[in-house]
Design a protein that fits this description.
Layout lengths: L5 H6 L7 E4 L3 E5 L9 E5 L11 H22 L3 E5 L14 E7 L16 H11 L2
Antiparallel strand pairs: 1-2, 2-3, 3-5, 4-5
Length: 135
Amino acid sequence: MIQDSVFTRIIRREIPAAIVYEDDQVIAFMDAGQVNPGHVLVATRRQVETLVELEEAEVAHLFAVAHRVARAVQAAFTPEGMTLLQTNRPAGWQTVPHVHVHVLPRHANDGADLVWPRQDPSLEVLRGYAQRIRL
């Protein structure tokens, strides 16, 4: 049996949270570790670790709510920018094994950074990658 995530415990009201929105599929609440004021997490109610385990309709609803939350955060906090971030598994920077999207208001020089080593493969290599995943 999968151990309950902290988000599942929030959904069950076992842990207090500042809830922004909820429906039968998702819940949105303030991130306890605010990077900037207005930092919200939008999580599935169903505990699933990664995005690829969800059905397409579930992903669509998750991101539709994240979009609504982003618009509300923009109106309430007027940030200079916005980062929506969804991560999968520890190697992909996921820290809670429960699908969620960060809605993170951003400001110049706010200290939040997203860095990775850029590689510049040739167009031939890129076409090979594309062939492997072509839908």
